[in-house]
Amino acid sequence: MFRQQLFLPLLPTLAACIVTLSGCAPAVPVQRARLTVPADPQITRVYVVQQQVIVRLSSSYERRIADQSRWRVIGTLPQGQVFKPVDAVFTIEGRQIHEAWLVVKDGRLTGFYLPGEEHFSPLAPSVSLTFGEP
User: Fold this and answer.
1) Is position 17 within any domain?
2) Does any domain span residue 11?
3) Domain, as residue range, for 52
4) Do residues 89 and 109 lie in contact, with contact meaning Cβ atoms separated by under 8 Å?
5) What distance in Å separates the CA atoms of residue 23 and residue 109, rounded to the nearest whole number?
6) pLDDT by residue for the chain (134 residues), tens digit each?
């Protein structure tokens, strides 16, 4: 009985701890994607982001695409052109951390290509992203 009296007041605190610890980040949404690469890889061009963009992911994490960061066109998906970072690694985060390449269509970042898994992760809503020449 003495143990019950000590334990009962701790129940709300223990329950709160369990709920907090079990509340991990959601997985990033993905769909299968098949990257089409140019026949001549020498023709891939490098572009520079003209203005910093902050992207809020569905997992509630934010990613920053820095101004003056350099990106190389690496291929295409139905969702847009795929840009791989030059001299850097870009990641997105949900339940796991994924290497990610930008997918851009008509000047809008539509999502991310995850090369390690061959998936596309859509970004909703898409955001404006302006590239220029290096």
Assistant:
1) no
2) no
3) 31-132
4) no
5) 29
6) 545 555 556 556 645 544 444 456 788 878 899 999 987 766 678 999 999 999 999 888 999 999 999 999 999 999 999 999 999 999 999 899 999 999 999 999 999 999 999 999 999 999 999 999 88
What's the total number of domains in the chain?
1
Distance between CA atoms of residues 73 and 57, nearest Å:
23
> Does 18 map to a domain?
no
For residue 115, what are the CA distances in angstroms to 53, 76, 100? 22, 12, 7
- Cα(28)–Cα(59) distance, rounded to whole angstroms? 6
User: What are the two backbone dihedrals, phi and then psi, of residue 34, each rounded to the nearest 5 degrees?
Assistant: -115, 110
- pTM given for the model: 0.79
Sign of dihedral through CA atoms 81, 87, 93, 96? positive
Residue 122 located in a structural domain = yes
Q: Say how far apart CA 110 and CA 122 lie, in whole Å.
A: 6
